[in-house]
Amino acid sequence: MPNDQYTFDNPRTRYESISPPVQHQDEPGLDSELVPTPDLGELSYRGTDRLAGRRALITGADSGIGAAVAIAFAREGADVALAYLPSEQSDAERIAELVRAAGRTALLLPVDVSIAEECTRLVDEAATGLGGLDIVVNNAGKQIYCERLEDLSDQAFDETMRTNVYATFWISKAALKHLPAGAAIINSTSVQAYKPSPILIDYATTKAAINAFTKALAGQLAERGIRVNAVAPGPVWTVLQVTDGQPPEKIASFGKNTPLGRAAQPAEMAPAYVFLASAESSYVLGETLNANGGIPTP
Questions:
Q1: d(CA 203, CA 164)
Q2: Which segments of the chain are extended strands (E)?
Q3: Which residues fall within 8 angstroms of residue 137, CB to CB, at 6 or more apart?
Q4: How distant, in Å, are the alpha carbons of 27, 92, 190, 204, 230 from that of 141?
Q5: Residue 126 to residues 4, 57, 65, 83, 130: CA-CA distances in angstroms?
Q6: Which residues, listed in sequence order, are joined to residue 55 by a DSSP beta bridge?
Q7: N or C of the chain: less Cβ packing under 10 Å?
């Protein structure tokens, strides 16, 4: 059984430095078909009631970081609404089973967050289904590499902006009528906001925008007692990488250029979101918490 998040060990060797085989899935892909299988904390995350009685909406909750956060939130005592694309239903059902195994409510909400009306519907259905809303995690993301700006179509650029930036705006805005003082909004940004890869121009642009949006909204909502923060992961082994998020030839070395020498597992990201959602971070707002294996950032 893997060590839980409280075990003191060497971060370089906590997880194996994987060299995944060349593989490809059509977007958005499935965790269940990813090789090797990511660790979402299924066997390791240990909750301590830090989110007891809370009600959380998580986008991109079927796989990767979103799924790991859903598992952690449930084991910390939160009920969870899981948002995901309809084609990701099988992955979402597996995460819902893990949430329910923790004794919490799991609400399955298939949605396309790149559509404004769908985002509004999502928030309202989550609040109704959970009996309220205390936490919003804007995590769904789109990442498709493109080596030449001339080959990046207007449509592709727009789809990335709508999924990553507009959805964060639409969902946050729709949630405000439900969020009480003490609530938290947590956005997923990226090390790409600080150290953009030349082949991820549109993705990196969206992540920088999310950083600015987070800080500005945190200042605006502080007087309402609603905290807004972000987590900026580095290279994390998720299905995003094999659905054209990275060139196939770079998959085997993914994450090995970090000071820790390996990619992260989604389970390693979840505690950052738990901290920002919990009362332990009551004086933290407008913060971007970097979890990137030691890559220098401003």
A1: 8
A2: 55-59, 79-84, 106-110, 135-138, 184-188, 227-233, 288-291
A3: 56, 57, 58, 59, 61, 66, 69, 185, 186, 187, 188, 273, 277
A4: 11, 16, 11, 11, 14
A5: 30, 7, 20, 9, 6
A6: 79
A7: N
Q: Give me Rg for the CA atoms of the chain.
A: 18
CB distance 81 to 135 below 8 Å: no
Nearest residue to 78 (alpha-carbon basis) of 270, 291, 286: 270
Among candidate residues 45, 166, 194, 203, the one labeled active-site is: 203
What whole-number distance in Å separates Cα of residue 63 and Cα of residue 51?
21
Helix (H, G, I), strand (E, B) or coil at 155: helix
Distance set, CA 246 to CA 19, 20, 24, 238 (Å): 14, 12, 10, 11
Average pLDDT over residues 232-250: 96
Helix-helix angle 116-130:167-175, to 10 degrees: 40
Instruction: Find where tokens 């923790």 sit.
Output: 102
Rounded to an integer, what distance in angstroms lies between the CA atom of residue 54 and that of residue 183?
A: 9
Q: Is 24:242 a contact under the CB 8 Å cutoff?
A: yes
User: So where are the chain's domains?
Assistant: 49-291
How far apart are alpha carbons 65 and 266 in whole angstroms?
5
pTM of the model: 0.97
pLDDT in tens, 51-107: 999 999 999 999 999 999 999 999 999 999 999 999 999 999 999 999 999 999 999
Question: What whole-number percentage of the chain has pLDDT above 70?
Answer: 99
The CATH number of the domain covering residues in 49-291:
3.40.50.720
Residue type, 125: E
Told to judge if 45 belongs to the known catalytic residues of this protein, a careful annotator would answer no
